[in-house]
Amino acid sequence: MPAPLLVLNHVSKVYANGTVALQDMSLAIPEGQFVSLVGPSGCGKSTVLRLIAGLGQLTSGSIEWGSNCQQNVPSRSAESKLAFVFQEPALLPWATVMENVRLPLKLAGEPKEKADPKVLQALQQVGLQGFEGSFPRELSGGMRMRVSIARALVTKPQVLLMDEPFGALDEITRSKLNSELLQLWQEQRWTVIFVTHSIYEAVYLSNRVVVMAARPGRVVADIPIEAPYPRSEDFRTSPLYNDYCREVAARLREAMADVTQEPYPPLVRRLR
Amino acid sequence: MLDRLASLLQFLDHQLGSLGVGILPEHLSWRGPARALGGAVKEKLRPEPRREAEVPGPGLSTSPQRLPLGKWLKPEVIAPGMVGLLFLGLWEVGVRLTGVPPYLLPGPILVAKTLVQEWGSLFPSLLVTLQVTVVAFLLAAVSGLLLAVLFTQSKWIERSFFPYAVVLQTTPIVSIAPLIIIWLRHNTFAAMVVCAWIVAFFPILSNTTLGLNSVDHNLLNLFQLYKANRWQTLIYLRLPSALPYFLGGLRISGGLSLIGAVVAEFVAGSGGERAGIAYQILISSFNLQVPRMFAALVLLTGLGVLIFVALSALSNKILGRWHESVVPRNS
C-alpha cells in the first residue's frame, strides 16, 4: 500500500448550534485511490469534503497531507492541488461555458492565451467540444455537470473532491457520466473522494467504500472493492458487484438502525 | 401626417356635433385674449410633435405609415390600445353629454388640440425637466452603486449607515425640498438635482445591496477554494450577480427621479428661461387653463413611460441570454 496522501486524525466538527457533524473520524487515503463516502443524510459526509477543502474550521483533530503531496506548489499557482465538484453545477450564469471553465485559471492570474488551450483540453475531456459559446441555462443538467467537472479538471488537480455530483441527474445520464468519470480517472489517476447516497454508484466507481452513520457523524465500515479496472457496463450486472452492493447495504442498514432507535424528532411525533 | 391628424380631430368633432353634443367651438372661445396667439395654429403645427400622436393612439395605425403595420398589430399592443381608446371615447362622450365646463374637465380632443397649440412653450419646458431628471438619475445610479459596494465590504459600515439611508428615504421630499432650495438658492438647477437625487438613489442602493449579498453560496465557496481575493470576488462574482437587482433598481429610480424633479420644480416655482414642465402645470392652474394643465400632464406622463421603456430595454439588452427575466420559459 502506497504512503497515504491524506490523513484525517480524529477529526471532529461541532457546529455553532451544537450539532455534532463529525465525531472522531480517522481516515487515511493513499494516492490514486477512488474513495466513496456513503451514508444517510446528516452523517457528515459533505462536511468531511468541506473540511478537506479548507472551507471550514475543524473543532478538533487534524488533517495532514502526505509528503508526496504537491505541498510546495505556490498557493496562487494555476496548478491547484485540490478541485471541488459541488452537488449543483455552481456555474456563473452570465458567463459562457468557455469563461466558466477558465475561471480558476483567471483567478490564479493566468493570461487568456495561456489558459485557453487548457480550457479547450478540459472541455474535450468531458466531451463538450462545440459548446464553448453556450450559456449554462442553454444546457441540460448533465451537460452543466460536465462543465462543472471540466472546470475542476482545468487546474490539473491532484485530488478531486466530489460532493454528490450526479445526485440531481436521471439514472441514464448518471450511469453514462459514471463510466466517463471512471475512464478519465484511469487516464489521470487523481485521488478522488466521492460523496454519494447511492450504493450502486459507490460500488461501481470506487476501490474503497467508507460507510458512515449519522448523529453523530462517524465511520462504521471501510470496505475495499477488489474488482479490476477498467470496469465495463457488464460489471454492473456481475455477481461480484451484487455481493459488494449487498454488503454495503447491510452495513448501511446497521448504521441506520442506530438512528431509528432514537426518539422521533418533534415534528414526526406530533403527526402520529 | 399633421394635417391628417388635424382633419381627424375636425372629423371627430363634427361627428360628435351631429349627435348633438358638439360644443367644442364654444369651449375653445372661453380661453379669451390670452389665447389669442393660438389663432396662428397652422404655423405652430409645423414642428413635428411626435408625442401628440399618443392621444388618438392606435386609431392612427389604420392609416398607412412608414412602419410595417404587422409589427404594431400584435395582441399585446392592440389590447391596451383598445382599452385606451375606449377610455378616451367614454371620456369625450361623457364630457359632452354632461356639459362639464373645460376649466373643470376638458375632453381628450380639446387636450390634444391644446397640446398641439402649446407645443412651442411646453416642449422646451419638458426638456428642462428632463435635464434635471437625467442628471439626478445618473448621480443616483453611480452613488447608489458605489455606496452598495462599500456596504458589502464591511457589515459594520452597512449597519452604521444603512439606517440613515432609510431615514433619507422615508422623509417626504416635499417637506425637505424648501430647505434644499434655500440652501442652494444661488443654483436652482443644483437644488432640483439634489431633490430628485434624494428620491431616486434609495431604490438603487437597497436593490444593489440586496443583489451583492444574494450571491450563490456554492459560488462563494468556489471562489474561496480557488483563493480569489476580495477584489476578484467583487468584480467576477458579486457585481455580475447584483446586476439584475441593480437594473431593477434603475427602473424604479428612473420614474422616481422624474417625480423628484417635478416636486422640486413645484416648490422652487422658478419661471423664465429655465421653467420646467411642472412650473407650466403650476402656472396653468393659477390661470385656470385646465386643458393646458392636461396637455402638460400628457407630456410628463409620456416622458415617464418613455424613461421606463428605455430602462427596460436597456435591462433586457444587458441581461441578454443569461437571466431568467429575459429568456423565454421553455428551453
Largest sheet of chain A: 6 strands, mixed
Largest interface: A-B, 27 and 22 residues
From the N-terminal CA to the C-terminal CA of chain A, the straight-line distance is 52 Å
Taking all Cα atoms into account, the compactness measure Rg of chain B is 24 Å
Number of strands of chain B: 0
Biggest sheet details of chain B: none
Unreliable stretches of chain B: 19-65
* Cα radius of gyration of chain A in angstroms: 19 Å
Strand-residue proportion of chain A: 15-25%
Give the N-terminus to C-terminus distance of chain B in angstroms.
44 Å
Number of strands of chain A: 9
Highlighted features:
heterodimer, A: 8 helices, B: 331 residues, mainly alpha
Plain-language structure description:
The complex is a heterodimer of chains A (272) and B (331). Chain A has 272 residues and is an alpha/beta fold. Chain A has helices spanning 45-52, 97-107, 112-125, 141-153, 171-188, 199-205, 239-261, 266-271; strands spanning 4-14, 20-30, 34-38, 60-65, 82-85, 159-163, 191-196, 208-213, 218-224. The radius of gyration of chain A is 19 Å and the shape is globular. The relative contact order of chain B is 0.10.
Secondary-structure blueprint of this entry?
The complex is a heterodimer of chains A (272) and B (331).
Chain A: E1 4-14, E2 20-30, E3 34-38, H1 45-52, E4 60-65, E5 82-85, H2 97-107, H3 112-125, H4 141-153, E6 159-163, H5 171-188, E7 191-196, H6 199-205, E8 208-213, E9 218-224, H7 239-261, H8 266-271
Parallel strand pairs in A: 3-7, 3-8, 5-6, 6-7
Antiparallel strand pairs in A: 1-2, 1-4, 8-9
Chain B: H1 2-21, H2 24-29, H3 41-44, H4 69-72, H5 75-98, H6 108-153, H7 155-170, H8 173-183, H9 188-213, H10 217-225, H11 230-268, H12 277-286, H13 290-319
Helix pairs in contact in B: 6-7, 6-9, 6-11, 6-12, 6-13, 8-9, 8-11, 9-11, 11-12, 11-13, 12-13
